[in-house]
Amino acid sequence: MQDNNKSPQKKGFDLKAITKTKGFSAFTAALLAIVLGLIFGFIVMIFANPDRAMAGFRYVIFGGLGRFGDVLYFATPIMMTGLAVGFAFKMGLFNIGASGQYTMGMFFAMYVGFMWDLPTGLHWVVAIFAGMIGGMLWGFIPGIFKAALNVNEVITSIMFNYIGMYFVDMWVQSNATMYIASKSCTNYLPSSVQIPSLGIAGSNVNFGIIFAIITAIILFIVLQKTTFGYELKATGYNKYASDYAGMKGKRNIVVTMMIAGGLAGLGGAFAILAPSAIAGSSMTYEPINIIAANGFNGIAVALLGSSNPLGIIFSATFISHIQRGGTLANLVGFKPEIIDVVIAVIIYFSAFAMIMNSTLAKFIKTRFGKKGTVLPNANSETKEAK
Amino acid sequence: MENYIVEMLNITKEFPGIIANDNITLNLKKGEVHALLGENGAGKSTLMSVLFGLYQAEKGEIRKNGEVVKINNPNDANTLGIGMVHQHFKLVEIFTALENIILGVEPNKMGFIQKSEAREKVVELSEKYGLSINPDALIEDISVGMQQRVEILKMLYRENEILIFDEPTAVLTPQEIKELLKIMRGFAEEGKSILFITHKLNEIMDVADRCTVLRKGKYIGTVNVKDTNKEELSKMMVGRDISFSVDKKPMKEGEVVLSVRNVTVPSKLHKNNAVKNVSFDVKAGEIVCLAGIDGNGQTEFVSALTGLEKMSEGSIVLCGKDITKSSIRERSVAGMSHIPEDRHKHGLVLEYSLEENLVLQRYWEPAFQNKGFIKFDEVRKYAEGLIKRFDVRSGQGPVTVVRSMSGGNQQKAIIAREIDKKHEILVAVQPTRGLDVGAIEYIHKQLVERRDAGKGVLLVSLELDEVMNVSDRILVMYEGEIVGELDPKTTTVQELGLYMSGAKRNTVKETNHAG
């Protein structure tokens, strides 16, 4: 509970109370990880090309700012897959299958786009929902395996990444309406199925990002305020205690995996249904037997955002931002892969940034705090047993 | 100036936010049994871990035979002749007893283990000290008592002269305890020095020469055991007077609330059944105690009773309703409250706040949720009420993260939750395990209060004092069967021990109440 950590007596704005919350410490931990990751990235750039390191690094940091529309556009799918991973993670499930769910969602949305003839204004909405259903289906299967047979969801969902991807590639290639063999990619989707653009010039940013942010907020409310969220987090923290309290653990596993799959599926739908800046064209899909990278980027997004839906909004935007910057660093001769290194380091650091954070806090307290003061939670330890 | 073999002088050990040992001094004489007494969290185990090299103290020094030594890890401790039997044994389950004893100091020639040589030495030691073991049995196949003897032989094999026993009697039967105390006495007479961590006062009175008392990380004092008594020791330990007897009004027997018939539960560990054909009744207004040594099917029985695991045969009727096939939630609604054996595993979501844990069984009730949205204001109000009523202490009240609370207060939170929930039977499994005397006193009072309020209480306990003091009726469980029904007023601890170890059994009276 973010805000519940405030002590009940104090009302109004209380900086001290805010800085003590779990959310705040997750935020500073992420920030610390980002700073360390960027410093490391800079060092790598200096080794790669000392003369241009500064210029390249400037692009990485600030490059995205000039293309904020693009940043949001590329943030949309990874925000959804990030939510898909993060939401399942709240229940203690590692949904590594976001990639397959994403691809499945994309195919379902595409199918509706090509094969169904619906009025403009309704077509894209139906296609988005179709994408969600596709993803839910691909989340449901590992979920039911886990619940009914106790098969580890990591294994099933990895397998379903491949199964989903090969299925989709097969279906696409065998459908003459969808697939143009000569270009080895899909046909252009009709404009009626494309999500309305937000109208920022030079960018494909569309209503998808708005939907993604709304979804994240809804998930936040579900997790914080509802009995379902309460059960889900309780199961994630302590499966045995949730059983003991009579929660329907198996049902919750299936429901959670379905929701997670649906989220990734939406991500796929948002990606393929995005409008194209060039009139008469659209996004296309190449069935070339490669697993969608956006699914795996979702893991990074979820980790950096501490699986908190609101955190994921920011982590997805940030990762998209430095990816844009990385592309721009190309201009001064850096390979965009440098950004993948930086992101990897950020994730690496964010894994133990929480620990560093508390060590840092302790160091500051012992250095600058009054002697003999103890941390708040220690009081309960020493006060007991009267 | 006396001759001390080990001196721990002014030891201070801090953990983030808490001072576990604050300027503690402990002197161990050669050839004495020295008890270390304190409540949970008093710092006993920390102090011993410092001596055994698992932790390094921030301040203070350790001397052996007057010389300052530095103990950085258990290997250093071993070199200095310090050995320890941990509360939870550190044995390799799939190795034999012999392999465990020589583990780390295997006699070898060019890398080949010389087992026969080791065996000779082990057998010799085990005969000399009366520590009977089977050197070739796998640890996973032998009893807890024998596992402990293996641990002790491990220390003897390494020729340790300072032996630390960390709550060694918790897992033993009264007969085994007696045997162990005798062995410890024997070690002392031979010139070995014993440090004996415990919070059982009877054992200290029986075996120890001197006793050092810690309270909340501070040194309270060292006394000669023969100049003191239990009351004085407990006062030193807790800081106030403690009553050892439980005040109970005469029992007002009511209707049968829980009726268990022929319950059989398969074991997860082996092919036999863990619980065999168990039948009994619990009436309103009585405390029935299921006594037995750990691992005789109590855990499996409770799992089946509360719905955590399935049983293969039998039936359970709660207040006239057959709940044999009911879900956990249905049993809970039908009137079963359950204080689980492992409060961290089952009883609490440690990352949740206190208020969230207090509604763990009730969050779905209309009082706390509306259309799936939790009414946090109601939860807060409810939690504040319970915290006040049950005196649950915590750093920040309802929003305290439960993990940061002390064990005693965590248990109080569970008890508050389970008692306040509507119930007819309270299943309390080892409710006082690991708690100090103050908290134990409190919990016993609550159990008796439930009984006086006309509820049935099924207490599962390994502690003999608890069994004898709290219960109205004792059922002894041995190897999955109920081997005896005893009246605590007419039976003795010794007799109870014989039933618990399977040496004696009577047929349980056939209960003819309408189930």
Automatic annotation (TrEMBL), chain A:
Keywords in alphabetical order, please: Cell membrane, Membrane, Transmembrane, Transmembrane helix
Matching entries from InterPro entries are given as: ABC_transp_permease
Do you know which CDD domains this protein is assigned to?
Answer: TM_PBP1_transp_TpRbsC_like
Residue stretches spanning the membrane: 24-48, 68-89, 96-116, 122-141, 205-223, 253-274, 338-361
* Compartmental location: Cell membrane
The way this protein sits in the membrane is described as: Multi-pass membrane protein
Sorted alphabetically, which PANTHER family does this protein's record hold?
ABC TRANSPORTER, PERMEASE PROTEIN, GUANOSINE ABC TRANSPORTER PERMEASE PROTEIN NUPP
Instruction: Quote the protein name from its UniProt record.
Output: ABC transporter permease
Q: Say which species the protein is native to.
A: Fusibacter bizertensis
TrEMBL record, chain B:
Per UniProt, the keywords (alphabetical) are:
ATP-binding, Nucleotide-binding
User: A Gene Ontology molecular-function term?
Assistant: ATP binding
Among SUPFAM superfamilies, the record links this protein to: P-loop containing nucleoside triphosphate hydrolases (SSF52540)
Domain spans labelled ABC transporter: 6-241, 258-504
Q: Does this UniProt record's set of keywords contain Amino-acid biosynthesis?
A: no
InterPro entries, per the entry: AAA+_ATPase, ABC_carbohydrate_import_ATPase, ABC_transporter-like_ATP-bd, ABC_transporter-like_CS, P-loop_NTPase
Q: Which Pfam families match?
A: ABC_tran
Protein name, as recorded: ABC transporter ATP-binding protein
